[in-house]
Specification:
This protein is an alpha/beta fold. It has ten helices and eleven strands. The N and C termini lie far apart (about 45 Å). The site of pyridoxal-5'-phosphate (PLP) has 12 residues, from α1.
Length: about 300
């Protein structure tokens, strides 16, 4: 157990990138700490942008192969992917893992959004022994059960060598002492939370549907692809014909909405902002009304 997915990820960077010149590949747009932790550990971030077609994102494996060097030690996988909402399918994961295996790259698979999925989710390490041997999986009940404040997460690997190296760093960083409430809450959530998760997923799906219909009925120049996972919506403002700065300004001053700035997820986040739909329906409706005022 560890006191957060992000602290565990940062420890992984230290553990598996021991040399100054070591490199970590991240697939942008991506949850910002997955590249910020690399920088704060003084290691090099190598960007493998996701490919986008009509709002649907896939991995660019040709670009990935081209970006690998002798210094590439780790690939950060966000599965399901925050912010684009993809649940990677088996073939995508196998192809990615094959490349990593051939190049001795360890995959850190951040699976924190895996409970809130609207299609079949496949944990990376469950695919095969070969893949589990190069994988460290990070997860937590924090997102699903809204208990992130309890700072409790866990790291799993079927490879004892990887786990040993990780454990040494996590002990050194003191991230492996968990508060008592975190243990109990995580256990209670996993043992008794199935009905809650099922209702939560329905509520989120309705909110996503509400957002889609609202944008359509009101003819707003804002689009998104329905996420396959999570409550996060990656809104595309390209049709507004405004610059990123102008969109942000309008959101803040006219709509009075502080959506997450797409650029913070990587340089391919221009003209995008992330909306969190894990709120009650009335609040979401109010946010959409405010949005329509400015656009
Ligand atoms: C992909 C991803 N990983 C990790 C986290 C945070 O995890 P923790 O609070 O356990 O550090 C988040 C929260 O937004 C997330 O979206």
């Amino acid at each position: 157990m560890v006191n957060g997915v992000v602290p565990a990820y940062s420890a992984c960077i230290e553990a598996f990138c021991p040399n100054d010149e070591d490199e970590v590949i991240v697939q942008t747009p991506i949850y910002p700490p997955l590249f910020k932790c690399v920088q704060s550990n003084n290691r090099k971030v190598v960007v493998n942008e996701l490919k986008e077609e009509n709002g649907y994102y896939t991995m660019d494996l040709e670009d990935l192969k081209a970006k690998i060097t002798k210094n590439t030690k780790v690939l950060a996988l966000c599965s399901p992917h925050n912010p684009v909402g993809r649940v990677w399918n088996k073939e995508e994961l196998e192809d990615l893992a094959q490349i990593c295996k051939e190049n001795n790259i360890i995959i850190i698979s951040d699976e924190i959004h895996s409970d809130i999925t609207f299609k079949k989710f496949i944990p990376l390490a469950s695919i095969s022994k070969e893949i589990s041997d190069i994988t460290i999986t990070l997860n937590s009940a924090g997102k699903t059960f809204n208990i992130a404040g309890l700072n409790t997460a866990y790291a799993i690997s079927h490879n004892p060598k990887l786990l040993e190296i990780f454990k040494k760093v996590s002990q050194k960083r003191q991230i492996n002492s968990i508060n008592f409430f975190g243990y109990i809450a995580t256990q209670a959530a996993y043992e008794n939370g199935a009905e809650f998760v099922s209702q939560l997923k329905k509520y989120i799906q309705n909110n996503i549907e509400l957002t889609k219909n609202y944008l359509k009925i009101n003819n707003l120049p804002i689009e998104f692809n329905e996420p396959e996972a999570t409550y996060l919506i990656w809104l595309c403002f390209k049709n507004t014909q405004l610059s990123h700065k102008e969109i942000k300004e309008k959101l803040l001053t006219e709509s009075k909405l502080a959506l997450n700035d797409g650029v913070s997820f990587g340089s391919n986040g221009y003209s995008y902002f992330r909306l969190n739909t894990a709120v009650n329906k009335e609040r979401l409706h109010e946010a959409l009304r405010k949005l329509s005022k400015a656009f």
